Amino acid sequence: MIPDHLHHDRYWRGxxxxxxxxxxxxxxxxxxxxxxxxxxxVHVDELIKASKSWSPSEKYMLTVALHLFNGINxxxxxxxxxxxxxxxxILREALLLRLAR
Length: 101
Description:
Elements: H1 10-21, H2 23-26, E1 35-36, E2 41-42, H3 44-50, H4 56-70, H5 85-99
Antiparallel strand pairs: 1-2
């Protein structure tokens, strides 16, 4: 499903880490209308629409994943204070993956 080389791409690996480790986001990985691994496309607007009814922490995790991928969606670090331990760990690792050279 996920091409191996994307796990080594600095722009994809942070996003993939969040999506593969977050229960709600994981469910979206198999929908090519949202993330198309053949075209290597992330449909940002569609993902944001899909998240309309989510909790603030779920939306925040999506926002961070999208920011790590393309840098277009800006993030505020303050909402990270309200994440539970599991999501904080996912976020921390995703940041490290994105920033690693």
